[in-house]
Every structure is written in C-alpha cells, then in structure tokens.
Amino acid sequence: MKTSRKRIVVKVGSSSLASPRGGCDSAKLELLVSALARLRSAGHETLLVSSGAVASGFVGLGYQQRPRTLVARQAAAAIGQSMLMQQYAALFNQYGYTVAQILLTRDDFSNRERYQHAFQTISLLLRRGVIPIINENDTVSVAELTFGDNDMLGALVAGLTHADLYVMLTDTNGLYDKPPGKHPDAKRIRHLDAITPEIEALAGSAGSLGTGGMRSKLLAAKTALKLGLPSFIGVAEDPEALLNILAGHGNGTYVGSFVDAGEKVSVSTRKQWIALHSPVRGQIVVDDGAAEALLHQRRSLLLAGVRDVRGAFQAGDVVEVYAAKRLIGRGICRYSADELRDALHSGKRSPAISEVIHRDQWTALPAQLAGQP
Predict the structure, then answer these.
(1) Integer CA distances (angstroms), 341 to 317, 331, 335, 337, 352, in order
(2) I want to staple 227 with a disulfide (CB 3.0 to 4.6 A). Which of 83, 159, 211, 264 is the partner?
(3) CB under 8 Å to 253, separation ≥6 — which residues?
(4) Does the pLDDT value for residue 63 go beyond 70?
(5) Contact 10, 46 (CB under 8 A)
(6) Considering the chain, what percentage of its residues have pLDDT values greater than 70?
(7) Segment 252-267 mean pLDDT
(8) To which H or E segment does residue 165 belong?
(9) CA distance 242 to 236
C-alpha cells in the first residue's frame, strides 16, 4: 500500500480513554497523542474526533458512574470538555503541535451555510498545520438532533473533509465471526468489502462508559463507504499503531479498499449535504425516462419528465425524487411546488420552466451515492 500524504480522521471512544472511576486515564491519553503526533510528523493531515467529555466530567457532579438523564450528561460535558481539551493541548504541545477545539451539533450539518463554514474552517486549520479536535456539543444538543454517537460524527466529518481513511479506535481489535469471549475458536474478520445485514448481526451492544459499540461502528463504516472512503476498526496499542494502520498492518478490521489519493472516489461537499443532511421539503415523481437520465446519463431533471409534485416547497429547497414508489435521489429544486403544479396542470408545458433540478444540484440515493463526482 502506498503511504503518500494522506488526510486521516481518527475517532476515539470514551471506553478507550476513560478510567473506570471517571476521568481520563493519563496513560491512555499519552499513548493516543503519541500515535497521532507520529502520524502528523510523517506528513499526514490529522483530525481527531474525541469522545470523553461526559466521562471526564461526571465525577465533578458527584456521580459514581455515567449519568443517564440528558440534563446530567449535558452538565457533565460542560465540566469535562474543558478538562479534556486542557489535557490534549498540553500533551500535543510537547510535540510542538497546536490543537483547535470544534464542537458540532446535528443542526450544524443540516444548515447549509454552517455546514460550508465548518468545512472552510477545518480546511484552514489543516493548511496551517493545526490538529482539529472535534466532539459533539453535548452541552446544547437535544435528543432529536444528536448524531447518536461519535462513530457517526466521525464518519460525517471524514466525508466532509474528503479524508483518505477513517480510523475508529476502540478496545476491541476488530470484528469477529462470533463473540470471542464466549467462543475460543472465534476468528477475526480482517477485511470487509461491504456492510451487509449479516455482518451487522455479528455486532454486539454498547459498553458502560460509551454510547457506541461494534454495531454503531459498522453503521459509521457503512456511511463512510457511501461517501467513498475506507475505514478501520481496531486498537492502537503502541505509538506506531496509526502508521501501521495506514500501511495496512493494523490490529483490527478494514472496511473498503484503499486507493491512491489521486484515484479515490470522493463525493463533493455540496452533494454530501444534499444526500445526508439537508431538510427535505417535498417530493417529485418522475417517469422512467427521467429516472434513467438522472441515474445513468448524468443529465438534469426536465419538466417533461415530471409526473407529480407533492408538498409545499419553495425554489431552492431540497426535494426527494421518486420513480413510481422508489426513492432514487434528492436535489435542489429551481421552482416552487405551486409553480411546478401550475405548469403541469395547465395542459401545456411552460417555456419558462424547463430544467427543474440541475445535475450539479442532484445526488442519487443510496447505492449510487459513492459513484457521484
């Protein structure tokens, strides 16, 4: 495998950082930072998605274990996030690296302007040699607008930044064909081309200190695959671990295939937002000819291919596109629902309304997503 300059997103979970009694284990943090610093020193752009704020802060609230209520977790995060960043800043400073804290919510992804600003900010930090440390803004997140866990946040960040590899560090060295704790003959799966329902069924549940588990990591890897990038799920046991993972010798499971940065398939930031984050305001039903043009001929959606309009959307809103009952994609519509209905029901096609969704404002869902430029 080639190890030319890469952009790597590394996600680490609470279970890999926290001590059983709360707070972060200093030895675990030092090992992680040492491995990240080696990756950065080798010339690779490095981003860290770090859990651990709640685990770091709940002791300060007088809890004996991770709290269950939302308000208690938010309060623990308010205490723990600053503690976590202080530790990271001090450790990375020993290697001569500056870090930047970025706290995101699901709403930052669904709002197109904030999504673009996040991309621009992270890109500038990387150009200046700064290591972004990203976490969900647990203190203000609400249940309906969370990522579920930082595994998915990391996948979305990896897609947003057009990373070459998404690494999920955990306390288990990859996925096994059966629970290794119960079956001594369990075999580790070293590589997966795809995440199938059968593969998902092999995953267990979340641990006590974190919100994720192997299932959430597989779902995050599945999302990363749709965005055109491979993932790794495993452990980092020594300072050279991340370099070994990048070289294809990691202690874990690889998902997808590595390709040279000049050849990799990448989904544009705009199309990622349309496909995964945009609020959908309505639906457009198209005929088979229009579906063929959109999916296979890289053409725009014309009014002639529209058969029905549903919802009350405005020009510039994102709509779902259906061929009969099958969802085939999403796009930014150039006209309001009322304008399209008027054009369809007037009995004649309006010359003022021709191109309904431009091909650059369209993305197929879901299997075709990774094939979009």
Answers:
(1) 16, 18, 10, 6, 14
(2) 159
(3) 174, 175, 188, 189, 190, 191, 192, 232, 233, 234
(4) yes
(5) yes
(6) 87
(7) 70
(8) strand 165-169
(9) 7
The token pair that represents 148 in the structure block: 């579920």
pLDDT of residue 144: 42
**Residue 255 near residue 225, CB atoms below 8 Å:** yes
pLDDT higher than threshold 90 for residue 322: yes
Q: Could you tell me if 14 and 51 are in contact, meaning their C-beta atoms sit under 8 angstroms apart?
A: yes
Place of tokens 């079956």: 183
Return mean pLDDT, the chain. Answer: 86
Structure tokens belonging to residue 347: 């009995």
Contacts 24+ apart (CB under 8 A), 134-137: 134/47, 134/48, 134/49, 134/50, 134/102, 134/103, 134/104, 135/49, 135/50, 135/51, 135/52, 135/53, 135/81, 135/84, 135/101, 135/102, 135/103, 135/104, 136/103, 136/104, 136/105, 137/103, 137/104, 137/105
* Tens-place pLDDT, residues 210-244: 445 888 899 999 999 888 899 999 999 999 999 99
- d(C-alpha 118, C-alpha 124), whole Å: 10
3-class DSSP string for 137-148: CCCCCCHHHCCC
Q: Map out the domains of the chain with their CATH numbers.
A: 7-255 (3.40.1160.10), 269-371 (2.30.130.10)
Give the DSSP letter of residue 276. I
Burial of 227 (0-12, 13-18, 19+ CB in 10 A): buried
Q: Which regions of 13-119 does DSSP assign to beta strands (E)? A: 45-50, 99-104
Task: Write out pLDDT tens, residues 111-142.
Answer: 889 999 999 999 999 999 999 999 988 666 65
Are 348 and 304 contacting, i.e. CB atoms less than 8 angstroms apart?
Answer: no
> Around Cβ 88, how many Cβ atoms within 10 Å?
23
Three-state DSSP class for 39?
helix
Q: Are the C-beta atoms of residues 12 and 241 closer than 8 Å to each other?
A: no
Does position 55 have pLDDT exceeding 50, yes or no? yes
Q: Which residues contact 190 (CB under 8 A, 6 or more apart)?
A: 174, 253, 254
Compute φ and ψ for 286, nearest 5 degrees: -120, 165
Distance CA 209, CA 53 (A): 11
